[in-house]
């Protein structure tokens, strides 16, 4: 079989990233419409779908990582795409709550098989020196694949809402089979036992993160902020679509089908993300690399509060969408600034531990906060969305409090390991996995 696994590693990485992004967009673009219209899910069930996915990802991150460390990155990726495909296919073929929950488990476990394994695989194959530009180029392929997937989902959804999901699932399984034939792995070496991730290491990571949080005000504050954002975000991420579906859509090009409009909304969201990223790159380097960018982060967090609360209260479709996009733009701008800030205030030897701690706090917040707000949404959708915004309200105050603390202390000591001068994001302080909804 090894004779067939001769495809260039970089080309393979580009192709499967584009294919993954295309197939994921094909499945996700209209999934919320499908949950409400075809499967008949209520607000609590919508949130439980997301909570199940987050919980599956959280619980299986370690055991699935052992496969990539012990046996093969390539094998882990292939297993992951096969499971993701099975989850997408089940979700599209069986419009029932329990089947959709089972699909989330399949797709969540599948994602943990691919999480980290893909970047580790390409880095092993081409070396660390070539990896950085390859990652940047792969993001461009992902964006192109996502846009094509969104448009394709809209076209197929006008025929049948489950159709793009079923095609996505079948395509993902086909992708796994193609990788089994063409994906090569020539430089894999098993991770030494003392370097492998285990549940004991997860507990130690959590303990080390708590120690770092006690010693460093910036880390402590960002852990709390990550927990609060997790508590607030799961319900909003799942329930905004329920509110949008309550509006009557205008007729454009002879159709007012929600499949068409949700495709448009997804495209606008993608373009807004791209635009805000370009704006961020043009901001002054001193603003991005400020020792404590608390002022801009507090402002952006307050804009998110305004966006979420306004979305909850507004009864006009276009005003509600404007509020939702305000939240999107503010979050997109804040993400890399906060990421770089955290990196500047963590020693190199403890960086991975602290980053993991921040991500774990966000995941815990989503799992804990989602179901109660979902239950509230079953009684009053507006109340649940408004509660999400109110939960977010302490975040701007936490940023400003930290700013006041630093001012009283006369500023922090000089730091080692500063972030790049261009403000490039180094880590993720948000969700543990991309595009899970």
UniProtKB/TrEMBL annotation:
Signal peptide start and end residues: none
Location of the region described as Disordered in the Swiss-Prot/TrEMBL record: 411-437
Coarse class of the protein's main subcellular location: membrane
Keyword presence, Ion transport: no
Subcellular localization: Cell membrane
Domain of life (superkingdom): Bacteria
Key words, A-Z: Membrane, Transmembrane, Transmembrane helix
GO molecular function terms noted in the UniProt entry: transmembrane transporter activity
Domain annotation Major facilitator superfamily (MFS) profile: ranges: 1-406
Transmembrane in keyword set: yes
Membrane association type: Multi-pass membrane protein
GO CC term, one of those recorded: plasma membrane
The name this protein goes by in its record: DHA3 family tetracycline resistance protein-like MFS transporter
Organism: Kribbella pratensis
């Amino acid at each position: 079989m090894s004779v067939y696994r001769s495809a260039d590693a970089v080309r393979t990485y580009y192709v499967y990233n584009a294919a993954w992004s295309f197939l994921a967009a094909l499945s996700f673009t209209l999934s919320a419409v499908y949950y409400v219209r075809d499967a008949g899910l209520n607000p609590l069930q919508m949130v439980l779908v997301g909570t199940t996915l987050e919980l599956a990802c959280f619980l299986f991150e370690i055991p699935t990582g052992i496969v990539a460390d012990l046996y093969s990155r390539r094998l882990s990726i292939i297993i992951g795409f096969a499971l993701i495909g099975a989850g997408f296919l089940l979700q599209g073929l069986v419009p029932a709550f329990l089947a959709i929950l089972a699909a989330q488990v399949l797709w969540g476990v599948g994602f943990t098989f691919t999480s980290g394994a893909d970047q580790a695989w390409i880095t092993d194959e081409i070396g660390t020196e070539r990896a950085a530009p390859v990652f940047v180029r792969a993001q461009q392929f992902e964006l192109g694949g996502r846009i094509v997937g969104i448009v394709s989902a809209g076209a197929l959804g006008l025929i049948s809402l489950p159709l793009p999901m079923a095609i996505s699932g079948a395509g993902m399984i086909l992708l796994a089979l193609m990788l089994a034939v063409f994906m090569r792995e020539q430089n894999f070496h098993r991770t030494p036992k003392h370097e492998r991730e285990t549940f004991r290491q997860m507990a130690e990571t959590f303990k080390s993160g708590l120690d770092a949080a006690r010693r460093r005000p910036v880390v402590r504050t960002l852990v709390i902020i990550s927990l609060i954002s997790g508590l607030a975000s799961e319900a909003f991420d799942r329930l905004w679509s329920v509110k949008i579906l309550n509006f009557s859509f205008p007729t454009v090009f002879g159709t007012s089908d929600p499949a068409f409009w949700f495709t448009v909304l997804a495209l606008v969201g993608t373009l807004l993300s791209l635009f805000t990223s370009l704006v961020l790159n043009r901001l002054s380097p001193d603003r991005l690399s400020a020792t404590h960018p608390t002022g801009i982060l507090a402002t952006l967090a307050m804009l998110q509060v305004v966006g979420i609360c306004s979305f909850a209260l507004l009864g006009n479709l276009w005003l509600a969408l404007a509020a939702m996009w305000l939240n999107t733009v503010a979050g997109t701008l804040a993400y890399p600034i906060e990421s770089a800030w955290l990196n500047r205030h963590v020693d190199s030897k403890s960086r991975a531990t602290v980053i993991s701690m921040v991500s774990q706090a966000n995941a815990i917040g989503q799992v804990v906060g989602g179901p109660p707000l979902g239950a509230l949404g079953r009684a009053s959708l507006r109340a649940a969305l408004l509660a999400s915004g109110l939960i977010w309200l302490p975040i701007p105050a936490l940023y400003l409090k930290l700013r006041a603390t630093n001012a009283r202390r006369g500023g922090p000591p000089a730091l080692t390991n500063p972030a790049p001068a261009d403000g490039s994001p180094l880590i993720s302080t948000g969700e543990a996995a991309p595009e899970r909804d």
